[in-house]
Amino acid sequence: MAETKAGSYVAQDGSYERKTRYIETRITRDGEDGFAVEPGRYRLVVSRACPWAHRAILTRMLLGLDDVLSMGVCGPVHDQDSWTFDLDPGGVDPVLGIPKLKDAYDARPGGMTESGVTVPAIVDTTTGQVVTNDFHQIVKDLVTEWTDHQGATAPDLWPEDLRVEIEKMSDLNYREVNNGVYRCGFAGSQEAYDDAYDRLFARLAVLEEHLASRRYLVGDQLTLADVRLWPTLVRFDAAYHGHFKCNLRKLTEMPVLWAYARDLWQTWDFGSTVDLEHVKAHYYATHLDINPTGIVPKGPDTSGWEEPHGRDSLGPR
């Protein structure tokens, strides 16, 4: 999501408020909303810097949808107007033929939406229009609506018998951790920051204990609960610890969560989807109200991600 001015997201009490109005149109098997699942028709647009887009990147990879849902990658540093395709030759997406993601939002009937220009977004290549940017629904629909095109070994990330527990776990983690780091970083008062900070590390302590005796967050398998939490963990030391002042301890100083994060990096190849240079460039060079110089740190050392995680004994892959 494109977020550059903390002040525009701060409530009167100084707390951070995330915009939550997204395009709710869905791409489904039956095409109920006018957009049916169709290989090659849609393009998932992401930034490797964005944790919300990272959920969609991971889900697409895990389900083996690479050949049926193409992916465009925006550069990590957007301007006030839009995420841009500055990584592509000529600064233009080779499939959509546009330099800015905003162009696909503007092409929608009625033009720009209240959500603003956010990633992830799925664009209909036949019209050049954004269909949806609802990051929460996108991953669920990739699991449940694209089943005819998933790989033979695709895991069931949202099993019916675990859905209630997955959503409960995910909602808690979203409120206190995924969005909690933003509530720290964009707090407009000391009181709001202190509250967000305390709640963040209280939840991380709960997760540290929860994962000490189990390999995954819910059940004995990888689920959307893991896919949703992990993008925040992988960015923690590179961005949130320093830039957002979430500095009680680093991920590498939380032994269980650190091992859990390495397990997913290695066992499920989550690491192949990560670009921490993009992450640092985005946070430190885009949020100039927090980091006015725009200087991007050289660290931290990331070699530890390949160290043995030691969690095989907790359960099957």
Automatic annotation (TrEMBL):
Active-site positions on this chain: C50, Y182
GO molecular function, one term: glutathione transferase activity
Span of domain GST C-terminal: 159-288
Site (Lowers pKa of active site Cys): Y240, Y283
Comp. bias intervals (Basic and acidic residues): 306-317
GO CC terms, sorted: cytoplasm
Keyword set, alphabetical order: Transferase
Record has Transferase as a keyword: yes
Region (Disordered): 295-317
Matching InterPro entries: Glutathione-S-Trfase_C-like, Glutathione-S-Trfase_C_sf, Glutathione_S-Trfase, Glutathione_S-Trfase_N, GST_Omega-like_C, GST_Omega/GSH, Thioredoxin-like_sf
Residues the record lists as binding glutathione: W83
UniProt-listed Pfam families: GST_C_2 (PF13410), GST_N_2 (PF13409)
Keyword Transferase: yes
Name of the molecule in the record: Putative glutathione S-transferase
Lineage: Bacteria, Bacillati, Actinomycetota, Actinomycetes, Micrococcales
